[in-house]
Amino acid sequence: MQQRWADRDEVDVYLGVGANEGDREAAIRTAIAALAVTPGIAVVRVSRLRETEPVGGPPQGRYLNGAVHLRTALAPHALLELCKALERAAGRRFDGVRNGPRPLDLDLLLYGDRELDTRDLTLPHPRLAEREFVLAPLRDLGVDVAVIPRPVAGPRVFEEPDAFAAWCDARRRGGCELGLVPTMGALHDGHASLMRRARAECERVAVTIFVNPLQFGAHEDLDRYPRTFAADLELCRQAGVDAVFAPRVDAMYPPGFCSRVAVGREAETMEGADRPGHFAGVATVVARLWSLARPDRSYYGRKDAQQVAVLRRLQRDLGLSGALVECGIVREPDGLAMSSRNRYLAPADRRAATVLHRSLRAARDAFAGGQHDRDALLAVARAVLDAEPRGRLDYLELRDEGDLAPLPAGRVPRGRMLCAVRFGEPPTRLLDNLSLRGADEEEPW
């Protein structure tokens, strides 16, 4: 296969051609003839056309497939636009049906040795090496398909900040919207729900896996925090993640690193009061990740509601780009909010831990029944928590929605109940929260 330019202006290009509606061969031959008379394009050779079964999509007829070797001076996107115009001229409907039937299909497979990853075009074609109905025609044209890069089995993994930042920057320059899902690893289906939402809303998705030492106190669980990178990578692969950033601590915080990002009111109570310095550590690592990735959207779970409020303040005050997307809590069948720390719990403590959700639901049910007094609602939840001897309450709060500002005593029109409870020795600290209004916020993506 010729992989280099024969001169400075022209490059060898291979197109896949196919059709499974109407006069299939006539549509393919007409498109090839149109390419041949286009200035800047020379048709070098056409493969044999083959009958093939459709791959994916709704029930439909068999395809006629082949490949075309071109030499062209057209840039990749200009050639892509020409192919789309030829498809439209043949009657193809771009109606959003994935892998649906079509009177003409033209795919850019190889553009010399060019690698490209943009919103509209990826080169080499990302599924080229998986599809025999494309590989067989390429063999007809003398292409050594054994040297075609095969897709990486799973996301690309980056350890160095500069390499990750360069990957993110290349995606943006290619017109791709980038979704970022920051995590500390030990991933579960709550994290996967964030990835699935990012995958649905963005062309490219990056996940960060970094156990951030700055957000752990002196006697907290930094050393025993679960690290399950192989399993995490497999979950990312299943969720369709494109890149994973898993840096070393000294790469994120090189020698001499001494900056800290402090966030005000939103970080001062609840978790901020119980864990001094915690939110400064969170804000510092997120600011660092945000500056590297510069995502269009960044995804966080509502289980850590105060953290979300802190990061919204961080984004507003520092003018960080993109949208912060808050996603619903994902729960186990018995109501316990999914958390990486749940795996610490002994069986008896795991059963007892459902008291968090039960207490919050009791307050929400009381609110729905007409009890709108702040202290009375807190008393309802506290009674449920006090009835569980294995749990040790750190705090129980009723705060305003959104910024979690304190609510004054008396009647409340809305609110969010938040609690933190410890179980076992060494203690495992679990968080949960729930809106009094009973919205569908708990539904996973």
Describe this protein's structure.
With 445 residues, this protein is α/β, with parallel strands linked by helices. It folds into three domains: 11-147, 7,8-Dihydro-6-hydroxymethylpterin-pyrophosphokinase HPPK (Alpha-Beta Plaits), CATH 3.30.70.560; 156-327, Rossmann fold, CATH 3.40.50; 340-435, Pantoate--beta-alanine Ligase, Chain: A,domain 2, CATH 3.30.1300. Helix content is 32%, strand content 21%. The chain is built from 13 helices and 16 strands. It has helices at 24-36, 76-89, 132-140, 161-173, 189-201, 229-238, 249-252, 271-274, 278-293, 305-318, 347-352, 355-368, 374-386; strands at residues 11-19, 41-46, 50-52, 63-72, 105-111, 116-117, 122-123, 156-158, 178-183, 204-209, 243-245, 297-301, 323-327, 391-399, 416-423, 428-435. Strands 8-11-10-9-12-13 form a six-stranded parallel sheet, with helices on both faces. Strands 1, 2, 3, 4 and 5 form a five-stranded antiparallel sheet that branches. A three-stranded antiparallel sheet has the order 14-15-16, covered by helices on one side. Helix 9 crosses helix 10 and helix 12 packs antiparallel against helix 13. It is elongated, with a radius of gyration of 28 Å.
